[in-house]
Amino acid sequence: MAEEQRDLISDRGSGVVNVRDARRSTLGRKAAFSTLSILVALLIAGQAVTIYFVYQQSGQISKLTKTSQTLQLEALQRKLPASAKPVNKMKMAMVNTPLAMRVLPLAPSVGDVDKAPASNKTEDQVKHILLQTDPRKMFPELKDNLMDNLKRLKSTMTDADWKSFESWMHKWLLFEMAKNPKAEERKAIPAEKG
């Protein structure tokens, strides 16, 4: 009988222990789930706060970027030589006022371009070809001697166009010299100072 009581006590004890263990494991799972839910919610809230602050700061970031680019551009402009200043900072005195105020003739109409050149001269043939590619092209009237005409051209051209023209003249001169080689020694022609 003593043994039966012990078995009953141990059965009751084990039954109580089993119920307690089941309750503890259920409570543990609920606590773990709650903790995990809280952590996920905090992570999402943290991401939302971060996005809010980044969005709020994007205006200031773009202002800083523009300021940085402006400062870099100013630093590059300071490094440029004085002759390469931007066009907007050039003085008005550099413009040839009489030439700028002169009324230019109208460009030939499209119908005039299709016509044959005025003569068989090389100048007329080249003008005809150039006007076919761009009917708005203008050609200045050059009626003086060669040196005066070149000076006038230089004053009406941009620096880049003049450099390109000088390069072409150099190549043309080399071509002419190669075309007509002379047996006698050539004399050096000094450049005229302007």
UniProtKB/TrEMBL annotation:
Domain of life, per lineage: Eukaryota
Domain MHC class II-associated invariant chain trimerisation: 120-187
Classification via SUPFAM superfamilies: Class II MHC-associated invariant chain ectoplasmic trimerization domain
InterPro entries linked to this entry: CD74_antigen, MHC-II_Gamma/Thyroglobulin, MHC_II-assoc_invar/CLIP_MHC-bd, MHC_II-assoc_invar_chain, MHC_II-assoc_invariant_trimer, MHCII_invariant_trimer_sf
Annotated ranges, domain MHC class II-associated invariant chain/CLIP MHC II-interacting: 3-107
Subcellular location: Secreted
Family annotation (Gene3D superfamilies): MHC class II-associated invariant chain, trimerisation domain
GO molecular function: cytokine receptor activity; macrophage migration inhibitory factor binding; MHC class II protein binding
UniProt record, GO biological process: antigen processing and presentation; intracellular protein transport; negative regulation of DNA damage response, signal transduction by p53 class mediator; negative regulation of intrinsic apoptotic signaling pathway in response to DNA damage by p53 class mediator; positive regulation of cytokine-mediated signaling pathway; positive regulation of ERK1 and ERK2 cascade; positive regulation of macrophage cytokine production; positive regulation of type 2 immune response
Gene Ontology terms: cellular component: cell surface; cytoplasm; extracellular region; membrane
Name of this protein: HG2A protein
Species of origin: Cepphus grylle
